[in-house]
Fold these 2 entries.
Entry 1:
Amino acid sequence: MSDAYMQGVLTHAQMMQKFCKEKVKYHFVTSLYGSQNYGTAGPTSDIDTHTILLPNMAEILLEHTKDTGTHTLPNNEKATYKDLHSMFEMYRKSNVNFLETLFTPWYECNPQFLDDWKQLRAGAELIATYNKFGMFRTLKGYYHEQINNYVKEHSYKGLANAERLFYLMFYYFVEGSSYEEALHFGNNKTLQDSNMALKYGQSFSTSKEETTYQIELENSMEKLCDKVEKTLSPGINNTANDFLNKMEAQLKLKVLSMELNKSKPQFESYRNDPRGIKTY
């Protein structure tokens, strides 16, 4: 399925390249987010992406760079986009749906900025430590949101998301796994398969089993939160903050240099990809 994921990302990236050209901006990178990154995607799972836009010289000099939105494709897939600064703020807030894009193997990057993207990805684990207390609170809130979705709509997807977030917090905060490992259920294939079965309503034979599991999960989450909260204190990791500031400045300086030297944005000149896909 990985080829299908990449094909989907490339389709989104091509659309965002055209969008950037129209807005006279620079496409930085389009990355996959969602169940494919956790190993729990099914045959009907959508391809959803986040794209980072780089501002042009005028926007940088005028400090007018904010630009966020969402494109919905004909097949209902979502292609969201954010300007560089707004995306970095999502990283700082430990928004799991954005942070995971630093770890996904499925992305399409503008080759003019590929070295910068590799540098940013190399610092992914550092970025994840920006505010661990804030991350804990964010994940806890997102967990309760998913549980509420399950209760209100009897959505197995909500229950499966809640379970996934529990294991993410368990492996990252309790077991001390890397963030990348925690995203993948501690690289536990049995847990991945079990979560996928839960997502598609294949885990319970009776409503009593389902209710019992929900109670057990909520009790486990409460104990985890009580334990973890005692080990964390508010505050940011200055090293992670400095790294993000450095990368933002580095990318803006590169854009300024390109425009001053009249370099053409790479999206104006596509090449034929050996996979038969029109891309950069």
Entry 2:
Amino acid sequence: MRLSKIGKAFRFVFPSMIVTAVSLAQTTPAHAGKIIAGGTGMSLTLMSEAGETLNRKYPEISLKVLPSMGSGGGIKALLDGVLDVSLSARPLKEKEAESLQEVFCFVTALVLATNPSHVSNINLSELAKLYSDPSPTWPNGTRLKVVLRPSSGSEIPYLTKKVPGFEAAIATARKRPGVPVGITDHMNLDIAEQMDGVLAITTLLQIRSEKKELSPVSLDGIEASVETLRSGRYPFPIKVCVIAKKGKLSVDIEILLGHLKHPTTASLLESYGAVPVEP
């Protein structure tokens, strides 16, 4: 009889132990040793380098950075569980913000870049016309050739809000035959490097981190730099954030964030034309 009672008690207690163990496994962040990141292409080289220094300091942790999938693609992959963190150059949408959070951010300069031989200044009041004009030229008479970006990316919507007439100018440029479109951040700069007289929309971060043979033009006489970003003088600062799911972060992601906030990584960011900011 006593054994029977013990057996009955065990049948009730043991399932509850299983439920408790499963619950703990689901709610306690794991220390898996591998972080998978992806998103906007402009920040991938930076993150890869940060991952290398992270691994040297914490050999048990590796950061794998997937090829460019854009800000929106990275956010979707994070929501689907493909990524542990995503990199986004656009703010979270209201629905996304219900389950995601910005955990580390920096600003860099959105720039108009050209070949080093054509470095010049562009007045913001003339920017839209350079895209709507079918045959613009640089001050030395060289034909100015624009490279477009997809409207689904972060750059065109950003500039549309900042530059009067830019949306209509881009629409006009898209109708002209032969105007190239840089579908991804990397394709954009690959096209730009091969075109004499190019004007491409990119970031100071990507030019410097990927060591591209392109130079930003000044805008209304203001050069893109860490100093003009910090002072607020540069007209096109763009914020890039590391995004994670809401809730308690895993041990690995906490270590990654600590590494990104470390002075050594901050120095790397600055060398590439970026400044850490609060999320």
